[in-house]
Specification:
By secondary structure, this protein is an all-alpha fold. It has one domain. 78% of the residues lie in helices and 0% in strands. The chain contains four helices and no strands.
Length: 79
């Protein structure tokens, strides 16, 4: 699992589709496996975002628009 995550990080891939079956094979139930996979993906995204912010590679206007609309979409789907 470490090797897959390491290679995915090097090339900029989250690799959740590949990582999930490995997490499932550890014996966790489906809900725990999916939560773990999302947690790992989120942590990777946060770290990458920090680097992009430091390098000034982000448009905060587009980020805010996408974040708000994404949150609204996620909220309405789960009601």
């Amino acid at each position: 699992m470490f090797i897959i995550s390491f290679i995915g990080g090097l090339v900029g891939l989250v690799l959740g589709v590949i990582r999930l079956p490995f997490i499932l094979s550890t014996g966790l139930n489906v809900t725990e496996s999916i939560g773990t996979n999302i947690g790992v993906s989120t942590l990777g995204a946060i770290i990458a975002s920090i680097q992009h912010i430091r390098n000034k590679n982000i448009s905060f206007t587009i980020f805010i628009i996408m974040a708000i609309t994404g949150a609204i979409g996620a909220f309405t789907v789960h009601q």
